[in-house]
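note to self: dont lose this again. the chain is below, predicted strucutre after it. 128 aa total, dont forget to put it in the shared folder this time
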Amino acid sequence: MNTLLACERARADEVMAGDLDRLADWLAEDLVYVHATGLRHDKAQLLAYLRTGPRFLAIDLLNPSVQVMSDCALVVGELEMRLQRNPEEQPVTVRSWVSEIWVRDMGDGAGWKLRLLQSTRQQSPVPG
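---
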């Protein structure tokens, strides 16, 4: 469990640092990344988006739950991100529910790779 959370933390740190070469090492070649906005990227598209997209100031996985099943793991929690969409705008904080599937990389022995990230924007509670 701690290994998977360390992988997720490292992935988030690479996004914030803008180190896309190191980030690419954490991503499976057949990655599917679905943003809370509904935007869908594969690995190449995600890396291109991050080159020109928003600047991430903070990324935190809150209340994570981890289930390891042999060479696959499910990580579920709340994703809180502070980001700046462009230099002219003030930073915003967004929260979403996130489900991630990590797979053990059997090819190069590098450990775990993110295969799927599905994010869903949180809704305000409906008044009773």
